[in-house]
Amino acid sequence: METQVQPKSPLIEPKRKILIVEDEKDIRDLVRYNLEIEGFSVVEASDGELGLTLAARERPALIILDLMLPGLPGLEVCRLLRAREETLRLPILILTARASEVDKVLGLEMGADDYVTKPFSPRELVARVKAVLRRAYGPVLDRPHEVYEKGRLRIDYDTYEVTLAGQPITLGLREFELLKFFLQYPQRVFSRSQILDLVWGQDVYVEPRTVDVHIRRLRQRIERDDANPTMILTVRGVGYKCNPDALAE
Ligand code: CA
Q: What is the CATH number of the domain that holds 181?
């Protein structure tokens, strides 16, 4: 049995743009990373003013809003979003380090749809985002449950569960992404820098050798003999390619 990953429906694309307003770059990166894995596109603002501008201009499906912002405070951003015609109904997910009930109530009274307190689990945040979107736009937003199945390998892209010949295997997030990426382009050769651009993202600076490290880890998990790989193949002088046919063996 073979199930290919479903291409994302163009119908739901416009509903998958998320704006994050957060002054801490590390948190923006973390949120972006986790949302992008789930097929969302992310627009970032480092302060409230820019957040308001982008909320009107980019037409996001949802805004993740930090409360402690330089300049315009998050709650004021929230109030202004609700006061303006074009963002009146924009779902707002509050992100805050201040866990006090006061903030929660205030945020919700100001028109926020939900809140997540820092430190947060990225997975929980993504789950909350999906729940708010579902409430706001209905179940049309749900992607089909994405499962890849071929030969010995089964990957559930929603739960991150990977099994090889029925045995669960644990992959690091980067290895998981690498595997997902390779399986989308069977037999296609990618250079290290292409892999970095497509899996790590263009605005991240890492050594091309980093790819080798993660390929090695991935092979240790999925190859029968990682010294003689049959699935993730080295193409000498160029880079790597994936041979999913090896899974059937
Ligand atoms: Ca902050």
A: 1.10.10.10
- Asked if 120 and 157 sit in the same domain, the reply is no
Q: Is residue 3 assigned to a domain?
A: no
| CA of residue 21 to ligand 1 center, whole Å | 9
Tokens representing 180 are: 């997902």
Question: Which DSSP symbol is given to 98?
Answer: -
70 alpha carbon to ligand 1 midpoint, in Å?
A: 7
Per-residue model confidence as pLDDT tens digits over 222-233? 999 999 999 999
Whether residues 107 and 209 share a domain: the answer is no
57-73: pLDDT as tens digits: 988 999 999 989 999 99
Does residue 244 have a cis peptide bond before it, meaning omega lies within 30 degrees of 0? no
pTM of structure: 0.53
Q: What's the CA-to-centroid distance between 12 and ligand 1, angstroms?
A: 30
Residue 198 lies in a domain: yes
Query: Within 13 Å, how many C-alpha atoms sit on residue 117's CB side?
Result: 9
Q: Is the dihedral of CA 90, 95, 47, 42 positive or negative?
A: negative
- Kindly state whether residues 103 and 129 are assigned to the same domain: yes
- How far, in Å, is the centroid of ligand 1 from the Cα of 66? 6
